[in-house]
């Protein structure tokens, strides 16, 4: 199943400047592993040492926050769009 993953600007240097990549995966955990295989070091940017999504990284599947779905076990289907969004802090 082909899934489009939108890559945020801070991670594009890992994908050779690509703003989106296509991966084959049945769930988000497999998607992370596919990204790691294609772009070594990608996984550690998304997951902590326990294999959980880092608190400052948000992943959306078709606009839905995966933390409110099944997390990394959330199933994907062909044509889905995944957005990786780093949290932004600060302001006045």
Account of the protein in words:
With 92 residues, this protein is of the alpha+beta class. The chain has a single domain, classed as Beta-grasp domain (Ubiquitin-like (UB roll), Roll), CATH 3.10.20.30. 17% of the residues lie in helices and 25% in strands. A 5-stranded mixed β-sheet has the order 2-1-5-3-4, with helices on one face. The longest helix has 11 residues. The chain is globular and about 45 Å long. It starts with a strand and ends in a 6-residue tail after the last strand.
Strand-helix topology:
Blueprint: E1 2-6, E2 20-24, H1 28-38, H2 42-46, E3 57-61, E4 64-65, E5 81-86
Parallel strand pairs: 1-5
Antiparallel strand pairs: 1-2, 3-4, 3-5
What percent of residues adopt helix (DSSP H or I)? Answer: 10-25%
Helix/sheet category: alpha+beta
Low-confidence regions: none
- Provide the β-strand percentage band: 25-35%
User: What do the pLDDT scores average to?
Assistant: 92
The total of beta strands comes to 5
What is the CATH topology classification name? Ubiquitin-like (UB roll)
- The ordered string of helix (H) and strand (E) elements is EEHHEEE
Query: How many structural domains can be distinguished in the coordinates?
Result: 1
Please state the overall shape, judged from the principal axes of the Cα atoms.
globular
